[in-house]
Amino acid sequence: MEDEYSDQIAALLAPPSSQSIQEYYNSLKEAGKCDGLNVRDNGKHGKAVFASREFKEGELILKDQMLVGAQHSSNKVDCLVCSYCFRFIGSVEAQIGRRLYLQSLGIYGEKECEKEHPIHSTNDKMERDLPPKEMIESLLNGDLSLPFTNRFELPEAVPCPGGCEEEQYCSQSCADADWETYHSLLCTSSSNKQSSVLLKFIEHANETNDIFIVAAKAIAFTMLRYRKLKKSQAKDKGKGLLGKMDNTSFSLLLEAWKPISMGFKRRWWECISLPDDVDPTEEVEFRTEIRDLASTSLELLKDAIFDAECAPLFSLDVYGSIIGMFELNNLDLVVASPIEDYFIYIDELADKEKEEALTITRTFLDALGDDYSVSCQGTAFFPIQSCMNHSCCPNAKAFKRDEDIDGHAIILASHPISIGEEVTLSYIDEDVPYDKRQAMLADYGFTCTCPRCLEDCPN
Ligand SMILES: C[S@@+](CC[C@H](N)C(=O)[O-])C[C@H]1O[C@@H](n2cnc3c(N)ncnc32)[C@H](O)[C@@H]1O
């Protein structure tokens, strides 16, 4: 594969030209996706985002819709969200009932160790008493209503159009968009002939690293765009569909790949930082292991969705570079939990109302323990946010407001920003000393030379 398609693989992985960067980001601007911003090379660190108008401190700079993303597998236990826009779905009762039901089966999500829990702090999960089974079932099937949940209404869950039970949506439009963009190739419904091989791929990702699922979505996204482009070209030319990969179909594949081509990339096994528990003398073995893991995952994905017309997409270099792109660019997918808001609301009620509400809700809060507040978490790639460079004295920050109830990346001005100024974020906790900052940024492959670092630099 790598030898047979070496030219095409090199073309897919070549950094985009300035002209194609301009064209692509201008098209996003024309579509209203980045008003007040321009993306261009800053002459030092590759692509960068510049303000084309002034922004006041605290003002919204960008609401960026993800290109591709997925909820962490372990987080699916804690939060039932729309598989396309990541809004919480169902009802407060169903969310709580589902979580307690899974807990009763001994299935737990991942604990958010570092989060502060304003209204609850219990001991270990295993020691919690669960409400009776019938009570959990009544929450799940809608027979039991909790007080004041009408103030926290969630969209009803819409099933996957293909019939799998893995994905649910907040609306038919999200269900259709997911199907057209990624899921029609990755659906594990029994009506899909490839479901058993797809399940093997997913099982491997869940056991090793769920970043493979996001990479599979990036490949499915490109293949489906390619098929759409090919169809419309065939219609325009009034001739039959092209059968195999030739120059024309490769230029369509390059066009389909364009949104992903814009992301800064390096191969995953080359850019992943060495974990603390790996001895530096074993670095070569570690990187080989990571490459082998990606290779196994790719073979499983190929068994499930390989298409000869898109063959270069299935090379290990391309797969590794897509995963590396998530590693180097990702802003975590985070959506705050309405269940947390609900329990905080109950906690803040006036004395008598609170006492009455607590007679019903306390059992559930105790059973959930600290997990009542777990947010939806995952990995995502955002087309414009991913062009923002780092500074240890940034002028912007990623910050979700109360109204941001889905998976968009939200970027706010943390200082006033003037026209023509570069918009920067901090990739790290910038409140630490110079040496520590540089050590953390080494994981991103650069030494920071922002004004603060130049001042703090000992030499
Ligand atoms: C999220 S991307 C930012 C956009 C990137 N400049 C591009 O061309 O796509 C992160 C990468 O940009 C580069 N970068 C970001 N901030 C930088 C800085 N302050 N100094 C040097 N390189 C930086 C590094 O290569 C980093 O891994």
UniProtKB/TrEMBL annotation:
Biological process (GO) annotations?
A: methylation
Question: InterPro entries attached here?
Answer: ATXR2-like, SET_dom, SET_dom_sf, Znf_MYND
Which spans are transmembrane here?
none
Claim: Transferase is one of the keywords in the record: yes
What domain of life is recorded for the organism?
Eukaryota
The protein's GO terms of the molecular function aspect are: methyltransferase activity; zinc ion binding
Per UniProt, which keywords does this protein have?
A: Metal-binding, Methyltransferase, Transferase, Zinc, Zinc-finger
> Where does the SET domain lie?
35-428
Q: Does the keyword Zinc-finger apply?
A: yes
Question: Which Pfam families does the entry mention?
Answer: SET, zf-MYND
Q: What is the recorded name of this protein?
A: Histone-lysine N-methyltransferase ATXR2 isoform X1
Species whose genome carries this gene:
Carex littledalei
